[in-house]
Amino acid sequence: MAEPDTSAPLPATTANTHVHELEVAEVIRETADAVSLVFEVPEPLVPRFRYRPGQFLTLRVPSDRTGSVARCYSLSSSPHLDDDLIITVKRTAGGYASNWLCDNAFPGTRLTTLSPSGVFTPKSLDADLLMIAAGSGITPVMSIIKSALIAGTGTSYLLYANRDASSVIFGAELADMMAEYPDRLVVDHWLESAMGLPTAEALTERLWPYTGFDAFLCGPTLFMNIARSAMVTAGMAERHIHTEIYRSLTGDPFAEIVVARDDAQTPATATVELDGRRLELSWPRQTPLLDVLLANGYDAPYSCREGACSACACTVRAGEIRMLRNDTLVDADLAIGLTLACQSIPLTEHVDIAFDQ
């Protein structure tokens, strides 16, 4: 494919090639409150739905009130084991989308989704991994563990907290995996019904032998705060702690991409490193970088298009940008040049950016 002519104007509107429909092939009842939805991927879409362990899908869920809502659900399947895509959804009190999916999804249901996205994924499956999950936070963790056991060489320790034994998602599968890989996987269940709520002190005692591992943490906010405190107290460096946080999206990430022409300002130029390619692009001054990339047909990662996640995070290597909104990047991220492509507009004539996650 030839590189685009940076002097040529972008079209005013172009279809969002990241938006697709997938059909539910099977619904698996995991617990009384959780189901797994198995999606078959048609052959022409296979390249679009390649994913890394720990990533998620953004689904459009029908709504009688608003037409639809967008929600992110982690893939519990492994790209190294499963042919189909599998997400696992747990019913939450007052959670419209999760309740709709648990009650209404059945084989044959077609749902609109974006391509897989997310940065909650290990850089190497050969690394030793400390996995900490509570409730449905096991979903991306399960994808990572299965992948590490099948395609990696390291060991994994999983601390998994739940209300009681009946609410443990993947309980039988985890037991089978421990039996198959006794020297590489330890699963430590914390049941609130028998042990009370987990405390930082109690978790520190369990986690200190694994402070040299890479840690992946997913669950309710309060639990993650306690677990993070325990890991730091045990001696783990913050840079080794990776967390997955989901927020309810308020915008429409499925909307068509609109790149407005602005004849009053000369576009900036961008050099973008993406998937091993260096792209040279014309960048209209008031258009976020993500929209420019998608409008030109490039497969840039994203899930929300509203600055509420970090799926489109990239590094500014030269030049300056301004972020219109930032709800996820912290000072340490900004200090190393990270920005959100969906919120970044250029301030200098040229900007050099890399998607290197």
Automatic annotation (TrEMBL):
The protein here is known as Ferredoxin--NADP reductase
Which prosthetic group or cofactor does it need?
Answer: FAD
Q: Which organism is it from?
A: Nocardia iowensis
Domain of life according to the entry? Bacteria
Transmembrane ranges, per UniProt, are: none
Q: Which PROSITE patterns match?
A: 2FE2S_FER_1, 2FE2S_FER_2, FAD_FR
Specify one Pfam family: FAD_binding_6
Q: Which UniProt keywords apply?
A: 2Fe-2S, FAD, Flavoprotein, Iron, Iron-sulfur, Metal-binding, Oxidoreductase
InterPro entries the record matches: 2Fe-2S_ferredoxin-type, 2Fe2S_fd_BS, Cbr1-like_FAD-bd_dom, FAD-bd_FR_type, MRET, OxRdtase_FAD/NAD-bd
> Which parts of the sequence belong to the 2Fe-2S ferredoxin-type domain?
268-357
FAD-binding FR-type domain: residues covered: 17-123
